[in-house]
């Protein structure tokens, strides 16, 4: 029908790019995913990407998604983008990319450590983030020290989602939620911090104008339309950081609402009405992807990545069975652990973390199992280890929720969950049992994509604001209520896990379990 409209979101992840089209009921119409590769220059901890290759992949995803949807491009009402946080692209005066890197480029280690000693407390109070090597200014300072010719050409700094919108519109812009992941934003003013720029002696004119999420920044030009199949003049709209868009996609837009974005890692963010700064300096504060809201963040760190390690290292039998049955190996694992009682017969896994500001970021991918009984393998085998891995992630989410409650002085009423873990019924059940609160599971598990589609809808004038978009587009698949008896068991087990966590964490910090 001629009045039908659709929303497009582009998601730049660590492993690859996605393009999604949603209808105005929040239903995914079509999507495309394609992986990309990284470049590893001969520089310690350095990772880059080829912007030409990445842009070609993004265009492929757009073209393929349009083709699969069979939608007339004129019906795409708005286009927006989200991305991994911390990744940046530097442009020269001609708008050409001279440096492009994801958030796993940690070359700025020394620069971050030097800055932390000199200005760490001040920068945290202004930006809500400790200096860390993955943040934009410390990589730029590395260029200033080691690649002076390239540094002298820098005319513009863009976060990754900003760069995608630039490629789609030829407009230089940024947005508060993704800009706050740079560690350069004055979190209270939602503008670039002149103080931090001055403290670090960076050029102030390289930072772009900031638009709020849901604001139109430009239109699709003719040349991009011909390359993508999109309609010339389509509105290009500011989106937001992937985690904050995940909150939008779980309708977490009002104060106190909390979401665990459970993917490779699991950021846990609570919406707040003012930019709270943790007195203990353990949390991050960021701008939300909707005007007038902020988030405080703790992070369970290794969750999905740790469970993938289990699948690949321990679950070879399950992988073989899954190949025969043509199902996901995680389905086999999930079925197996349903017979294991809460507490995994005394087996604990400690792989995830209770966020501790900058310190947690220094910990490598290390973890341990405890409680394996060599005389009773039938009680402490693969199934118990698998359930212990999930319980480990759920304990970590709970511990990080407690930190958010302490900082905000608010009690969490429920937790929303999206990402890979939200696809597992046993995972969401364990999470509800551990925290003793309802866990809301959305129909659209890729909530980040739905969240950025909301931004597109607001910018296109379909919705008055993000709250209205959330009411229209977010639907719940289930609300997992906690089991009281299981919660009582987990109350005791959680504190045992917490003590184990603190010991393992300290051993890693001390270098006993580290391979730095």
Descriptors:
516 residues; alpha+beta; Nucleotidyltransferase, domain 5; 7-stranded mixed beta sheet; 6-stranded mixed beta sheet; 18 helices; 20% strand
What do these coordinates show?
By secondary structure, the protein is an alpha+beta fold. The chain has two domains: 6-249 and 444-477, Nucleotidyltransferase, domain 5, CATH 3.30.420; 300-442 and 483-509, ATPase, nucleotide binding domain (Nucleotidyltransferase, domain 5), CATH 3.30.420. 40% of the residues lie in helices and 20% in strands. It is built from 18 helices and 20 strands. It has a seven-stranded mixed beta sheet with strand order 14-15-13-12-18-19-20, sandwiched between helices. It has a six-stranded mixed beta sheet with strand order 3-2-1-4-11-10, with helices on both faces. β12 (258-262) and β13 form a beta hairpin. α11 packs across α12 and α16 packs across α17. The termini are far apart. The mean pLDDT is 92.
